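Write out this protein's structure.
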Amino acid sequence: MYERKTALYDKIIYIPCDCDCSVLQISRYRDEPELYISLYVSGYSAYQNAFLNNLIENVKLILKIVIGKRYNLYEVIVGQSKVKELTDYLVSLEKDLGQPPSR
């Protein structure tokens, strides 16, 4: 897990999956108090199944979307040590929300 700041974001944290197939990004824009949570999937890891298996899974996903069922694209596996870091980070963000965003 690592954290950084940019001109656009007040804080960004990246939490890689334990198997390195995806990364969870939690960010906060400088001018907004809301958090944005994104999931990035490694193209290499996501497509290690056979072509036919990927095709079948994609068709199932499309059908769920079309008929309005709930669906899960990917999940992030976070180990115990990363959970502690994530908790500490979220607590620090909660404290920061009480202050005006930095400019």
